[in-house]
Amino acid sequence: MKVHHLNCGTMHPYVVPDGLVCHVLLVETDDGLALVDSGFGLLDGPQWKTRMGSTSRFLRPEYADTETAIRQVEALGYDPHDVRDIVLTHFDGDHFGGVDDFPWARVHLTADEVDAARARATLVEKRRYREGFIDELTVVGHSPSTAEPWRGFPAATELTDIAPGIVLVALPGHSRGHAAVAVDAGDHWTLHVGDSFYHHGQVDRTGGVPVALRVMESLVARDRARVRANHERLSELWAEHDADLILVNAHDPTLLRAAQVAAGRP
Ligand SMILES: [Zn+2]
User: Fold this and answer.
1) What cofactor does this protein call for (predicted)?
2) What is the CATH number of the domain that holds 146?
């Protein structure tokens, strides 16, 4: 499957010199288009405060309609109605904001994340998940299974109801049901690990991780021990230098640019 690497949201948090992006995958399947994460949507400009809450004060978004997934799908010459499925790593607003622009699409994520968004059981989760928002979506919950491990990750499930070669990999920690999404791009796999880490220095051991990102990661984590364990596992994966794997996350502009170059975009 052909995979496009899009930036669907730019943010300029204080003391994060390179800023942050919202890395979204647009996947061409045999019978339609699928998104992995959706970045910010058209409603996020006018309704920023109610949709993002207090986090926008730190993230300092630079909102632009042209960066939304729906406008980029149109700019690439596609019909937005061909986007039939959206796979989310988790339900934070900078990942699902674009979903509202594709009300006909099914929204896939782990059943654990769906349950967490409905229960809003902790203070962080009350802030994280807006009350009732999930009832407006066509949500499909999936349960990654230990019967289907993927590259050393213990639980995964192939989303064959979208297309063979799209795999939801359980990676809880940042949120209760957080997941990574692997996409078979023919001669390589793209693995989008969402917010499992924020800066490439956390996995490639080059350092330079802004302190502000470490603090933010810790504050919003559902399970800090699991976040640290995910860093370890992803560091190992990075060190293996698999030629057939492109590892990206949601917010690192360096990794977005590298993926775009690898995918042949000038
Ligand atoms: Zn995020």
Assistant:
1) Zn(2+)
2) 3.60.15.10
